[in-house]
Amino acid sequence: MKNFKKISFFALVLGWIGQIITHIIWSNLRYENTSGGDTGVVIFWSSFFLLIYYGLFILIPSKRIAKLSEKIGILNFTLLSGFYALIGFTILIGWGFLMSNNFLGVFLDAFVCGLIFGLTFHLLWNKKRNEIKEIHLIPILTLPILFLFVYLYAFPKLLPSIAYNAVPQYVRHDILKNTIPKFKVGDELSELQKALPGEFEFEDCYGNRGAMLENFQYVIEVNCCKIVRIEYGPRQKNGYTMGGERKPCS
C-alpha cells in the first residue's frame, strides 16, 4: 500500500480538472455560456465534496481498490471507477439533484471524474508505483492551484474573446468591464460581437443594451451596424437611460 495516497490523490486531482472541463463544455452546449451552468459554484462545492469522497470512498477502502486494480484490466477498472464515482456522488449530494430533476449535467461531471481517476490510478499503480516515491506531495497539491490560475486569470487575460463564454460569471463580468472601454461611437458592431461573442445580438443591426454589474454599468446603442452611443463607468444609484430613435442607414 506504499504510495497509495500520492497516486490516488493525484488521480483524483486530474479527475477534478477533467470534470470542470466537462462542466464547461456541457454548460456551453446547454446554456451557450459557462456562467449559465454556475461553473463557479460547481468549482467551489465540487472541491469540498471531492475531499469527503476521497476520505470515505477511496482512503477507507484503499486496500480493496488497490487489489482490484491489480486483478482486472485497465478498461474494466476505468469504467467501474466511473460508476463508483457516480454512486458516491449520488450518496453525498447527487440525490438532491435527482429530487429536483434539475442540473443533471453534474452527474456527467462525476462520471468523467471517476473515469479519469480510474484510468490514471490503474496506470500509475501497476506500472509506476515505485517511481512515485521520488515525487514530493507539494507539486501534486499545487496542481489544482495552477489549473485555477490558468483558467480564471491567465486564460481570460490572454484570450478574453475566447474565454468570455468559457469562464464563470464574475470573470465574464471582468472581461466585459475591461473590453467595453476599448470601443467608441462609430465602431462596427461586428467588432464588438467578436470581442464579446453572444453578448450583443441585435436584430437588423439596431437596438440597445445596458447592464448594472457589481461595480460597473454601461449602455450601448447600435444603429445601422455601428455603435451610435456608448456610456460606461462605475456603478451608480441610477443606471443610464436607454432609448434612441432608429435612423435610416445612408
Describe it.
By secondary structure, the chain is mostly helical. The protein has two domains: 160 residues, no CATH class; 51 residues, no CATH class. The protein contains ten helices and three strands. It has a three-stranded antiparallel sheet with strand order 1-2-3, with no helix packed on it. Strand 2 and strand 3 form a beta hairpin. Helix 1 runs antiparallel to helix 5, helix 1 runs parallel beside helix 7 and helix 4 packs antiparallel against helix 5. The mean pLDDT is 89.
Strand order, biggest sheet? 1-2-3
Number of helices: 10
> How confident is the prediction overall: mean pLDDT?
89
The secondary-structure class comes to mainly alpha
Radius of gyration: 24 Å
Question: Features of this protein?
Answer:
250 residues, mainly alpha, 3-stranded antiparallel sheet, 10 helices
Indicate the topology.
Elements: H1 4-31, H2 39-59, H3 62-71, H4 74-100, H5 105-127, H6 129-132, H7 137-158, H8 160-163, H9 169-179, H10 189-195, E1 207-212, E2 217-223, E3 226-233
Antiparallel strand pairs: 1-2, 2-3
Helix pairs in contact: 1-2, 1-5, 1-7, 4-5
Keywords: Membrane, Transmembrane, Transmembrane helix
Transmembrane segments: 7-29, 41-60, 72-97, 103-125, 137-155
